[in-house]
Amino acid sequence: MIKTALILVLAGGVAFGATHTTAAAERAVIIPAPARDVAPTAAPRIAVFAGGCFWGMEAVFERVKGVANVTAGYAGGAAATATYDQVSTETTGHAEAVRIAYDPRVVSYGTLLRVYFSVATDPTSLNRQGPDAGPSYRSAIFPQNEAQRGVAAAYIAQLTRARAFPRPIVTKLEAGRFFPAEDYHQHFYDKNPNHPYIVNWDKPKVAAFRAAFPQLAK
Fold it and tell me: Do 201 and 171 meet the contact criterion of CB atoms below 8 Å apart?
């Protein structure tokens, strides 16, 4: 669970390997919108996604119109609780995840999934995202009801048929309680804009979102 990108060789203030990292992360994958979506309601809704370090996931979804709040945390494990130290052992079954509170009248669940697959995670990478490896960095969706489960499953099938990615999608639909992460992880991107991990991995991801989905960006 240790974020390997924090252990960087710095030369002249620039992280070694940053050029390759940025170039790879600046481009969103252009994918079709979901053919099926959850019906809008007046009540706020919750979506829970896992897909690598929650710092970048949180930063992307916080910038989506209609998203009221994003919480970094852990989901999918069998343990009765989850903390960073526990999840770091890769023995609890949890994944770093984000809980997204959104207004379905402004942004749909299907649209959030499109951003998720296009920008927020690499759905073809098994137990690894960017520089981080281990099951806690897996790509997973945690439907909060049957409607979300149906839409997520249908979208994965749609993207698979369309061969939207060069490799098979490994993202799984899972269940499990969400546990908020420690306070210092919340809104880490905004509180630490010059952190090497943020600069090399998450700022390019946010830039990719804005470039690919300008109509969705706050």
Answer: no
In the three-class reduction of DSSP (H, G, I as helix; E, B as strand; rest coil), residue 184 is classed as helix
- Count of CB atoms within 10 A of residue 102's CB? 23
Tell me how crowded residue 51 is: count the other CB atoms within 10 A of its CB.
27
- The predicted model scores a pTM of 0.88
Q: Which residue in this structure is represented by tokens 């999840």?
A: 87
Q: 193-209: buried (b, 16+ CB within 10 Å) or exposed (e) per residue?
A: eebbbbbbbbbbbbbbb
Q: For 60, which DSSP code?
A: H
Per-residue pLDDT of the chain (218 residues; tens, 9 = 90+): 445 434 333 223 333 233 333 433 457 999 999 999 999 988 889 999 999 999 999 999 999 999 999 999 999 988 788 999 999 899 999 999 999 999 999 999 999 999 999 999 999 999 999 999 999 999 999 999 999 999 999 999 999 999 999 999 999 999 999 999 999 999 999 999 999 999 999 999 999 999 999 999 99
The verdict on whether 32 is a catalytic residue reads: no
What are the CB-based long-range contacts (under 8 Å, 24+) for 31-35? 31/114, 31/117, 31/118, 31/159, 31/162, 31/164, 32/158, 32/159, 32/162, 32/164, 33/110, 33/111, 33/114, 34/110, 34/111, 34/113, 34/114, 34/151, 34/154, 34/155, 34/158, 35/154, 35/155, 35/158
Of 200, 122, 117, 119, nearest to 159 by C-alpha is: 117
50, 53, 64, 206: which is the annotated catalytic residue? Answer: 53
